[in-house]
Amino acid sequence: MIRISLLSTSEVRNKLELFEQLRIGLIALILIIAVIIFMSFSIKGKIEAKDKELKTLETELQRLKKAGVEKLDKEHKRKKKELETKIDVIWDLKSRQAGPVHLLDGMSRSLPERVWLNSMEESVKGVRIKGYAYTNVDVAQFMTNLERMDYFSDVELIQSGQSKVGEHKIMVFSLNMKYHAPKGWATKEEQKLK
Fold this sequence. Notes:
The relative contact order is 0.08. Helix content is about 60%, strand content about 20%. It has a four-stranded antiparallel sheet with strand order 1-2-4-3, covered by helices on one side. Helix 1 (about 10-110) runs antiparallel to helix 2 (about 135-150). By secondary structure, the protein is of the alpha+beta class.
Protein backbone atom coordinates (compact mmCIF):
# COMPACT_ATOMS: atom_id res chain seq x y z
CA MET A 1 0.00 0.00 0.00
CA ILE A 2 1.13 3.40 -0.80
CA ARG A 3 0.85 6.31 1.45
CA ILE A 4 0.63 9.77 0.26
CA SER A 5 1.40 12.72 2.45
CA LEU A 6 -1.16 15.36 2.09
CA LEU A 7 0.89 17.89 3.97
CA SER A 8 2.72 20.36 2.00
CA THR A 9 6.45 20.61 2.34
CA SER A 10 6.24 24.03 3.89
CA GLU A 11 4.00 22.75 6.63
CA VAL A 12 6.34 19.85 7.28
CA ARG A 13 9.25 22.23 7.44
CA ASN A 14 7.38 24.46 9.86
CA LYS A 15 6.58 21.50 12.10
CA LEU A 16 10.20 20.31 11.95
CA GLU A 17 11.47 23.77 12.79
CA LEU A 18 8.97 23.98 15.68
CA PHE A 19 10.07 20.57 16.91
CA GLU A 20 13.75 21.62 16.60
CA GLN A 21 13.06 24.85 18.55
CA LEU A 22 11.25 22.90 21.27
CA ARG A 23 14.17 20.49 21.50
CA ILE A 24 16.72 23.38 21.73
CA GLY A 25 14.52 25.16 24.30
CA LEU A 26 14.24 21.98 26.37
CA ILE A 27 18.02 21.45 26.24
CA ALA A 28 18.59 25.13 27.21
CA LEU A 29 16.10 24.74 30.09
CA ILE A 30 17.86 21.61 31.30
CA LEU A 31 21.23 23.40 31.11
CA ILE A 32 19.89 26.42 33.01
CA ILE A 33 18.45 24.18 35.74
CA ALA A 34 21.79 22.31 35.95
CA VAL A 35 23.71 25.62 36.25
CA ILE A 36 21.28 26.85 38.93
CA ILE A 37 21.65 23.61 40.90
CA PHE A 38 25.45 23.76 40.56
CA MET A 39 25.52 27.42 41.64
CA SER A 40 23.20 26.63 44.52
CA PHE A 41 25.48 23.87 45.84
CA SER A 42 28.53 26.07 45.28
CA ILE A 43 27.01 29.03 47.15
CA LYS A 44 25.73 26.72 49.91
CA GLY A 45 29.27 25.33 50.34
CA LYS A 46 30.73 28.86 50.52
CA ILE A 47 28.07 29.90 53.07
CA GLU A 48 28.86 26.86 55.22
CA ALA A 49 32.60 27.62 55.01
CA LYS A 50 31.99 31.27 55.98
CA ASP A 51 29.68 30.18 58.85
CA LYS A 52 32.36 27.84 60.13
CA GLU A 53 34.97 30.62 59.85
CA LEU A 54 32.61 33.04 61.64
CA LYS A 55 32.06 30.58 64.49
CA THR A 56 35.82 30.10 64.82
CA LEU A 57 36.35 33.87 64.91
CA GLU A 58 33.53 34.34 67.46
CA THR A 59 35.07 31.64 69.67
CA GLU A 60 38.45 33.34 69.42
CA LEU A 61 36.87 36.73 70.17
CA GLN A 62 35.15 35.33 73.28
CA ARG A 63 38.42 33.79 74.43
CA LEU A 64 40.25 37.09 73.91
CA LYS A 65 37.49 39.04 75.68
CA LYS A 66 37.59 36.63 78.60
CA ALA A 67 41.39 36.82 78.78
CA GLY A 68 41.21 40.62 78.55
CA VAL A 69 38.54 40.85 81.24
CA GLU A 70 40.48 38.53 83.53
CA LYS A 71 43.62 40.58 82.96
CA LEU A 72 41.76 43.82 83.64
CA ASP A 73 40.17 42.29 86.74
CA LYS A 74 43.57 41.20 88.08
CA GLU A 75 45.00 44.64 87.34
CA HIS A 76 42.03 46.32 89.05
CA LYS A 77 42.41 44.13 92.15
CA ARG A 78 46.16 44.82 92.28
CA LYS A 79 45.62 48.57 92.02
CA LYS A 80 42.83 48.44 94.63
CA LYS A 81 45.09 46.59 97.07
CA GLU A 82 47.90 49.06 96.38
CA LEU A 83 45.57 52.02 97.04
CA GLU A 84 44.25 50.45 100.25
CA THR A 85 47.83 50.00 101.45
CA LYS A 86 48.57 53.65 100.68
CA ILE A 87 45.40 54.75 102.47
CA ASP A 88 46.36 52.69 105.52
CA VAL A 89 49.79 54.34 105.57
CA ILE A 90 48.20 57.79 105.27
CA TRP A 91 45.79 57.08 108.14
CA ASP A 92 48.63 55.76 110.27
CA LEU A 93 50.71 58.87 109.58
CA LYS A 94 47.72 61.14 110.16
CA SER A 95 46.90 59.55 113.51
CA ARG A 96 50.54 59.70 114.58
CA GLN A 97 50.71 63.32 113.52
CA ALA A 98 47.57 64.46 115.32
CA GLY A 99 48.19 62.54 118.54
CA PRO A 100 51.39 64.28 119.65
CA VAL A 101 50.06 67.69 118.63
CA HIS A 102 46.97 67.35 120.81
CA LEU A 103 48.96 65.73 123.60
CA LEU A 104 51.49 68.56 123.73
CA ASP A 105 48.77 71.17 123.32
CA GLY A 106 46.86 69.73 126.27
CA MET A 107 50.01 69.60 128.37
CA SER A 108 50.99 73.19 127.64
CA ARG A 109 47.50 74.52 128.44
CA SER A 110 47.42 72.58 131.71
CA LEU A 111 50.89 73.59 132.88
CA PRO A 112 50.85 76.12 135.76
CA GLU A 113 53.40 78.91 135.78
CA ARG A 114 55.64 77.40 138.46
CA VAL A 115 55.80 73.89 136.99
CA TRP A 116 58.06 72.65 134.21
CA LEU A 117 58.44 69.26 132.62
CA ASN A 118 61.61 67.23 132.38
CA SER A 119 60.42 64.25 130.29
CA MET A 120 57.32 62.69 128.81
CA GLU A 121 56.87 59.10 127.57
CA GLU A 122 53.86 57.86 125.65
CA SER A 123 52.99 54.15 125.65
CA VAL A 124 50.01 51.94 125.01
CA LYS A 125 49.04 52.18 128.69
CA GLY A 126 49.15 55.98 128.75
CA VAL A 127 51.52 58.87 129.30
CA ARG A 128 54.20 59.22 132.00
CA ILE A 129 55.44 62.70 132.90
CA LYS A 130 58.42 63.70 135.02
CA GLY A 131 58.90 67.27 136.06
CA TYR A 132 59.70 69.89 138.65
CA ALA A 133 57.56 72.32 140.66
CA TYR A 134 58.15 74.81 143.47
CA THR A 135 55.53 73.29 145.76
CA ASN A 136 53.18 70.35 146.13
CA VAL A 137 50.32 72.77 145.55
CA ASP A 138 51.72 73.51 142.08
CA VAL A 139 51.85 69.76 141.33
CA ALA A 140 48.26 69.36 142.58
CA GLN A 141 47.16 72.31 140.40
CA PHE A 142 48.82 70.70 137.38
CA MET A 143 47.04 67.39 138.04
CA THR A 144 43.68 69.18 138.42
CA ASN A 145 44.23 71.08 135.16
CA LEU A 146 45.04 67.81 133.35
CA GLU A 147 41.87 66.14 134.69
CA ARG A 148 39.77 69.03 133.35
CA MET A 149 41.10 68.52 129.83
CA ASP A 150 39.11 66.18 127.57
CA TYR A 151 42.33 64.52 126.44
CA PHE A 152 43.41 63.09 129.81
CA SER A 153 41.90 60.89 132.51
CA ASP A 154 43.02 58.85 135.50
CA VAL A 155 45.81 61.30 136.38
CA GLU A 156 47.80 59.67 139.17
CA LEU A 157 50.81 60.86 141.17
CA ILE A 158 53.44 58.11 141.11
CA GLN A 159 56.30 59.82 142.89
CA SER A 160 56.88 63.10 144.64
CA GLY A 161 59.95 64.28 146.50
CA GLN A 162 62.25 67.19 147.17
CA SER A 163 65.48 67.93 145.39
CA LYS A 164 67.96 70.76 145.50
CA VAL A 165 68.91 72.64 142.35
CA GLY A 166 71.56 75.17 143.12
CA GLU A 167 70.37 77.02 146.25
CA HIS A 168 66.68 76.27 145.66
CA LYS A 169 64.65 73.40 147.02
CA ILE A 170 62.15 72.12 144.44
CA MET A 171 59.65 69.28 144.14
CA VAL A 172 60.43 66.41 141.75
CA PHE A 173 57.33 64.53 140.62
CA SER A 174 56.22 61.74 138.32
CA LEU A 175 52.66 61.32 136.95
CA ASN A 176 50.83 58.65 134.98
CA MET A 177 47.64 59.32 133.03
CA LYS A 178 45.59 58.04 130.15
CA TYR A 179 45.45 59.98 126.90
CA HIS A 180 42.32 60.08 124.70
CA ALA A 181 42.07 61.36 121.13
CA PRO A 182 40.28 64.72 121.07
CA LYS A 183 36.58 64.82 120.32
CA GLY A 184 35.88 65.31 116.65
CA TRP A 185 39.01 63.44 115.63
CA ALA A 186 37.66 60.41 113.81
CA THR A 187 39.50 57.13 113.69
CA LYS A 188 40.06 55.34 110.38
CA GLU A 189 37.12 53.01 111.01
CA GLU A 190 34.82 55.95 111.86
CA GLN A 191 35.86 57.75 108.65
CA LYS A 192 35.04 54.66 106.57
CA LEU A 193 31.51 54.65 107.99
CA LYS A 194 30.87 58.25 106.86
